[in-house]
Specification:
Layout lengths: L1 E4 L5 H11 L9 H5 L9 E4 L5 E14 L3 E13 L8 H15 L4 E5 L12 E2 L2 E8 L18 E6 L6 H10 L10 H6 L12 E6 L5 E9 L4 E9 L2 H12 L6 E7 L5 H4 L7 E7 L1 E5 L2 H7 L6 E9 L4 E10 L2 E6 L6 E4 H8 L5 H6 L4 E2 L4 H9 L12
Parallel strand pairs: 4-5, 11-12, 15-18
Antiparallel strand pairs: 1-2, 2-3, 3-4, 5-14, 6-14, 7-12, 7-13, 8-9, 9-10, 10-11, 15-16, 16-17, 18-19
Length: about 400
C-alpha cells in the first residue's frame, strides 16, 4: 500500500473516491463543487494499492486556531477521510493518519484538528475532544426577556437586514475579528468566502443577515437566519464583538414576526440566553455534542505557545502510543508565560496525548479526566492544580465546519 500526495488534476477522482467510501454519489455541479473547492490538493492523500487502485482519501486544510490568551497558531484541519468498504480494517486509515502527522511536522506545525464523524475512531491516533456545542430552541410565546427592552441599558448602534448576496465582505471581516479573540475558533481563509466553500453563511445559500453596526456605522456583529414554512426561524450562527451586541441580535431574532420558535444553532457552552429570559426554562438545550478535536505534535511548543491565566508548576508524563513517543515535561508558568523542559522529577499527572488535547484549550478540566480514569493524578493536589493552570479566560468554542 502506497500513501501519496495528490495533484490539482486529481481533485475529481479524489472526491469520487471519497464519496464511494461512504456509499454515496457526489452532488451535481453547484453546491457540491463549492464545498470541495477549498481542498488543498498539495495537502491531500491517496491510499493506492500495488495495482494502482485508489482505495482511501485524506486531506488537510491550513487554518489558524485561536489558543487561550488570544494567541493564533497554525493548525492542520483533517478532512475528507474515507476508505473503500473493500479495504477497511487492513491498516489503510492508520497509514494515512501516520503520513498526515508526518507531513504536519514537516511543515513546522504542532497542531492537527478535526471534526469527528465517529467518536471511537480518532482517539487512537492521539486526538481528544476539546470543544462542545449545542443548540437552543425558544418558543416565541416564551421569548420575553427578564429585563424588558425599555428598561435595558441601550446598546449603541443599529441593526440592518440584508440578503446574504448583499453582504460583500461584511461577514468575513466580522468573523475574522471575532475568531482572533475566541479560544477554540478557527480561521476562515478568504478563498473559503470567495468560493462559498462550506455551510451557510460561508456558502452563498439564500439567507437573511441581521447586521449590527456600532454607533459609528462599523459592522460589529451579525446573525444569519432563515424562516421556514413551519414557522421555525433557524439561526445558522451569531457572531458578535461583545455580549451587548449578541443580546441585541438575540432580541431582534426572538421578536421576528411569523416565527413560532427560534432555533439557535452552534451555541457555546456558557451561552447566557436562558438566564436573560423571564422563563429560565424557555431556552431548551439539545443536540449537545463534541465538535473540535485537537492533537498535539510538539508538547513543549504547544504548551509554551498558548496563554495562561494563572501561575503554577506541573510535571506531566505524556504518552503518545501512536507515534511511539513518551516524555516527561516540567511546565512552569509565571506571569502568563510558560516554560516547558524535560525533567526526571516525579510526575504530578500521567496522561495520554489525546487527553492533553482535550484539556489544552481549557474546555475540559483535568480533574474530570482524573475522575473518569483517563488521567492519573499522583498526589491529591495534582488535579486541582492542573484545573487552575489550564483554565482559559472563557470556554473554547468552534463554529467552523470543515
Amino acid at each position: 500500500m502506497e500513501i501519496r500526495l495528490t495533484t490539482p488534476q486529481d481533485r475529481d477522482v479524489f472526491v469520487d473516491t471519497l464519496f464511494a467510501a461512504f456509499g454515496r454519489f457526489p452532488e451535481p455541479p453547484g453546491e457540491g463543487g463549492r464545498v470541495w473547492s477549498a481542498l488543498e490538493m498539495d495537502r491531500a492523500l491517496f491510499a493506492v494499492t500495488p495495482d494502482g487502485r485508489r482505495v482511501g482519501t485524506a486531506a488537510a486544510y491550513s487554518f489558524e486556531l485561536t489558543l487561550p490568551g488570544a494567541v493564533p497558531a497554525p493548525a492542520a484541519g483533517v478532512t475528507a477521510v474515507g476508505v473503500l468498504p473493500s479495504h477497511r480494517r487492513q491498516g489503510v486509515l492508520t497509514a494515512m493518519m501516520r503520513r498526515h502527522l508526518a507531513d504536519v511536522r514537516a511543515r513546522g506545525e504542532f497542531l492537527s484538528v478535526l471534526l469527528c464523524s465517529e467518536a471511537v475512531i480518532y482517539r487512537r491516533f492521539g486526538y481528544g475532544p476539546a470543544t462542545t456545542t449545542h443548540r437552543l430552541t425558544v418558543p416565541r410565546h416564551q421569548a420575553a426577556f427578564a429585563v424588558p427592552r425599555a428598561e435595558a441599558a441601550p446598546v449603541p448602534g443599529s441593526i440592518e437586514v440584508l440578503r446574504r448576496a448583499e453582504c460583500g465582505g461584511i461577514l468575513e471581516d466580522v468573523y475574522d475579528r471575532y475568531r482572533r479573540v475566541r479560544p477554540g475558533a478557527l480561521s476562515r481563509p478568504h478563498h473559503w468566502w470567495e468560493r462559498g466553500a462550506g455551510r451557510p453563511p460561508v456558502a452563498p445559500a439564500p439567507r437573511y443577515v441581521a447586521v449590527h453596526r456600532d454607533a459609528g456605522g462599523v459592522p460589529d456583529g451579525y446573525a444569519t437566519y432563515l424562516l421556514e414554512g413551519t414557522g421555525t426561524l433557524t439561526v445558522d450562527e451569531t457572531i458578535a464583538s461583545d455580549d451587548a451586541v449578541a443580546t441585541a441580535l438575540a432580541r431582534f431574532l426572538l421578536g421576528h414576526d411569523l416565527a413560532t420558535e427560534v432555533v439557535f444553532r452552534q451555541c457555546p457552552p456558557e451561552h447566557p440566553l436562558r438566564w436573560q429570559l423571564a422563563d429560565v426554562r424557555a431556552a431548551r438545550a439539545s443536540d449537545e455534542t463534541d465538535w473540535l478535536w485537537v492533537r498535539l505534535l510538539d508538547v513543549p511548543r504547544a504548551l509554551t505557545t498558548r496563554g495562561w491565566a494563572a501561575d503554577g508548576e506541573l510535571v506531566l508524563d505524556v504518552d503518545d502510543p501512536f507515534l511511539g513517543e513518551r516524555a516527561r515535561h516540567l511546565l512552569t508558568v509565571r506571569g502568563g508565560e510558560a516554560e516547558c523542559v524535560p525533567t526526571d522529577r516525579e510526575p504530578d499527572l500521567s496522561l495520554d496525548v489525546s487527553d492533553l488535547g482535550s484539556v489544552y484549550l481549557g474546555g475540559t478540566a483535568p480533574s474530570t479526566l482524573v475522575r473518569a480514569g483517563h488521567v492519573r493524578a499522583h498526589h491529591p493536589a495534582a488535579a486541582a492544580a492542573a484545573d487552575a493552570l489550564f483554565r482559559a479566560e472563557r470556554p473554547p468554542h468552534c463554529l467552523h465546519w470543515f
